[in-house]
Design goal:
The structure is a single chain. With 314 residues, the protein is mainly alpha-helical. The chain has helices spanning 3-6, 19-25, 28-43, 51-75, 77-82, 98-119, 122-146, 150-154, 156-170, 175-198, 202-206, 211-214, 216-239, 246-268, 271-276, 280-308.
Length: 314
């Protein structure tokens, strides 16, 4: 798809973009999650970085995440324009031109990768480059528009940040880094499928082959339950590694018990029940999923602090 077709249907305006428009172009809410999980991956690693190096690493990982967001908004402008959830984004709203979004995305991609390599190591820079490529090209340009497995496979892009943080500190990948990656990777499908259930018309209108569109909501509810059950051993397994401990295990058990209960509640519902209460259960599950991921990584961070004080860990 060309830049023109990617921007098809989006009305340009005479609006002069401000600083806030460019910030929104970088998807700051997504960036905040990327920054937090990358920071946790860096801080729980067995090798410490100098504070200046650590700050630089997180800054350039954040810029890389922002680059991915800008490239995604450039390519998906036509889809974003017809979805209620995304219609106010800078490109479809005409606040930032598609060409500007592309230029910002490419510039930040180059800067973030090169500077992360200089600040830490080449492996971390290579992982960041692959993550940007995966999100912008593999997910946005290919998977999102072609397969209901888009969010399953594409979820890898959002799962790399803690691994990148770990590699910044250690220069290598370990089982702990893989399990932090797997935690986010397995969490992503039920998180987004819950959103798709109550944003029921958006994906239909945009022609995005989300699972709710291609297989229906009943099948989506089954998939949410299955992926939630598969997530449990990953979360508990991460708590049993060197980055875990009694606190992390307790948090994992409590959060996953609640998450499974929520998935069962979604699985038991039919469309009449969901319509009757405006998808309250699905919305509650989606909101809790955000807290679920945050608390898991906060527990890793707390466990590391306890270990430093000599009272945590296995």
């Amino acid at each position: 798809m060309s830049e023109t077709s990617a921007y098809q249907g989006v009305t340009a305006s005479a609006h002069e973009p401000g600083f806030g428009d460019y910030v929104q172009l970088l998807k700051p809410r997504v960036m905040s999650l990327v920054v937090f999980t990358a920071l946790v991956g860096l801080l729980v690693a067995p090798v410490g970085l100098h504070p200046v190096e650590a700050f630089s690493a997180i800054l350039f990982i954040a810029l890389g995440a922002g680059a991915s967001g800008a490239l995604n908004m450039w390519w998906d402008a036509d889809i974003d324009a017809v979805m209620k959830r995304t219609a106010r984004r800078p490109v479809p709203a005409g606040k930032v031109q598609a060409g500007e979004a592309l230029a910002v995305g490419l510039a930040l991609s180059g800067i973030s990768v090169v500077m992360l390599g200089l600040a830490t190591n080449l492996m971390a820079a290579a992982l960041l480059a692959f993550t940007i490529f995966f999100y912008a090209v593999v997910y946005s340009m290919w998977l999102k528009r072609t397969t209901p497995q888009n969010i399953v496979i594409g979820g890898a892009a959002g799962a790399f940040p803690p691994m990148i943080g770990w590699v910044c500190a250690t220069g290598s990948v370990s089982v702990e880094a893989v399990l932090m990656f797997a935690l986010i990777f397995m969490w992503t499908p039920p998180h987004f499928w819950a959103l798709a259930l109550f944003m029921k018309e958006d994906y239909h209108t945009a022609g995005v082959p989300m699972l709710t569109v291609t297989h229906g909501r009943k099948s989506t509810r089954v998939h949410i339950l299955v992926y939630t059950l598969l997530l449990v051993p990953v979360a508990v397994g991460a708590a049993l590694t060197s980055i875990g401990g009694p606190l992390t295990l307790a948090v994992a058990v409590a959060l996953n018990a609640w998450f499974v209960i929520g998935a069962f509640r979604i699985w038991k519902r039919d469309e009449a029940m969901a319509e009757a209460d405006k998808y309250a259960v699905e919305k509650a599950f989606f909101r809790f999923s955000l807290l679920y991921l945050f608390l898991h990584f906060a527990a890793f961070l707390a466990e590391a602090a306890l270990k430093s004080a000599g009272i945590g860990g296995w």
